[in-house]
Amino acid sequence: MKLTALPVDHAAPDSVALLVEADGKKVLYSGDLRFHGRKQPHWQRLIHDLRGTLDVLILEGTTIGRPGATSLSERALEPRLTRILQGQQSLALVFCSAQNLDRIITIHNVVKKLNKRMVVDLYGAYALHVMRDMVPELPQWDWPEMRVVQWRYQQELLRRAGKEDFIEKTAKHRIGWQGLQAHASEYPSSGVFSYALFYEDRSECPTACGGDE
Fold first, then answer.
1. What mean pLDDT is reported for the chain?
2. Which of 126, 210, 208, 192 minimizes the C-alpha distance to 165?
3. What DSSP element (H or E) covers 182?
4. In terms of domains, do 88 and 33 share one?
């Protein structure tokens, strides 16, 4: 039996489909994949190379139940997001998983283009830090245009994991709600947060953030 890992497009880095060859048969398991990310050519190449050669295809189907649903590619989204946020003076929040690396890069590209700043929460900052060597173009908490919101519960989780040094390092780029409100025009594309952030009580934010600017 021969097992081959084939790169596919997905938010998670190094996502692969698996090609199994045995007894003269070929089975392809797509794994989790999509067609609108920055690695879209991987899937197109896969289709081209394997067309007509498979005996069985096992295909991921998250959106099969949404007929007619379409997704903007990251390349198409970037200029659209730029147009939306250009000239905006109020704070804008982008709901996005910190593990959606392609989307993080798209938002950061817009931030740089508009000469603005980008805010991530502590979980997002740590996730990007861990994957920095795997994806060098990922924005990092210590880049000049980056700021970090330090939610108290995320600080506690990192402390339990023995990562208190990371909390101390990111404090140099810390910002809270008071700082965001005072400089809202600088942050028209801030807000790449883990989903839990939006369940915080805003009245608690200056303390939960571990302080403010």
1. 78
2. 126
3. helix 177-182
4. no
Contact 203, 166 (CB under 8 A): no
Q: What is the SS3 assignment for 208?
A: helix
Residue 69 counted as domain residue? no
DSSP string, 119-132: EEEHHHHHHHHHTT
Containing structural domain, residue 13: 2-58
- 159: helix, coil or strand? helix
Residue 146 lies in a domain: yes
Give how far the C-alpha of residue 3 lies from the chain's centroid of Cα atoms, to the nearest Å. 29
- For residue range 5-31, list pLDDT tens digits in order: 888 877 777 788 889 999 999 999 887
Contact 117, 176 (CB under 8 A): no
pLDDT for 182: 66
Could you tell me which residue, 150 or 88, shows the higher pLDDT?
Answer: 150
Mark whether 117 and 155 lie in a shared domain: yes
CA dihedral 96, 98, 103, 109 (to 10 degrees): 110
Q: What pLDDT does 158 receive? A: 93
DSSP state of 20: E
Q: Where are the alpha helices (DSSP H) in 38-176?
A: 40-50, 74-85, 101-114, 122-130, 152-160, 164-170
Alpha-carbon span 4 to 21, nearest angstrom: 8
Q: Give 41 or 76, the one with higher predicted confidence.
A: 76
**Residue 201 confidence class, pLDDT cut points 50, 70, 90:** very low
